[in-house]
Amino acid sequence: MNKRIVFLLIILIGVWGAAIYFLFFYGKTTKPSTIAQTYQQIPPLRRRLGPEDLKNISQKYQQTVQSVNPFEPYLLNFDKERLNVDMLSLIEPLTDYRFVGYAKGENERFVLLSIQGQILKRSPDDVLDGRYLILHVTSFALAVLDLQTGNLLTIK
User: Fold this and answer.
1) pLDDT of 50-69, one tens digit each?
2) Cβ(154)–Cβ(93) under 8 Å?
3) pLDDT exceeds 60 at position 25
4) What is the mean pLDDT of the chain?
5) Alpha-carbon distance 99 to 39, whole Å?
6) Is the dihedral of CA 80, 107, 123, 133 positive or negative?
7) Closest to 114 measured CA to CA, from 142, 138, 86
8) Structure pTM?
């Protein structure tokens, strides 16, 4: 064999040996940890409250709870003055009806609603479908109360 081929074979074996060493053996040895691990018990984040602490907290945050009799009608306080365009746009809409208009005369008041292409003339004191009570009428929408669920809805 030629000296040149023998020299190239020796270099080739050396490169392959170095590659195999770095792929399989380099960095696989276990290194002893230089940092000693210390275990600490973490103190509790809250301390136990004594009876005096509980009494102070209950006095500071004491709320008066109104007793409700389920057999008496409940009075719904509804501030109509605070109901504006922004508030009505945030309330969930009632999709069955569409608000067409509102008319107020000397003797008569009525609301015009559209349902499935039909125009309905209703009094603001009426209950729609035996379920929706009209609470407030504006020039652009109605605020209605669902009597079955108690939700406040809008008809736009």
Assistant:
1) 677 667 766 766 655 566 67
2) yes
3) yes
4) 78
5) 70
6) positive
7) 142
8) 0.47
Residues in the chain: 156
Please check whether residue 111 is in contact with residue 122, taking contact to mean a CB–CB distance below 8 angstroms.
yes
- Mean pLDDT (whole number) for 70-93: 71
pLDDT value at position 45?
41
pLDDT of res. 87 = 75
Query: What is the C-alpha separation between 122 and 45, in angstroms, rounded?
Result: 62
Kindly list the distances between the CA atom of residue 32 and the CA atoms of 22, 27, 29, 35, 37, in Å, as whole numbers in the listed order. Answer: 21, 13, 10, 9, 12
- The most distant pair of C-alpha atoms in the chain lies apart, rounded to whole Å, by 123
- CA-to-CA distance for 119 and 113, rounded, in angstroms? 6
Residue of higher predicted confidence among 75 and 43: 75
Distance CA 92, CA 39 (A): 56
- Phi first, then psi, for residue 154 (nearest 5°) are -125, 150
Which of 3.40.50, 2.60.40, 2.30.30, 3.20.20 would CATH assign to domain 82-155? 2.30.30
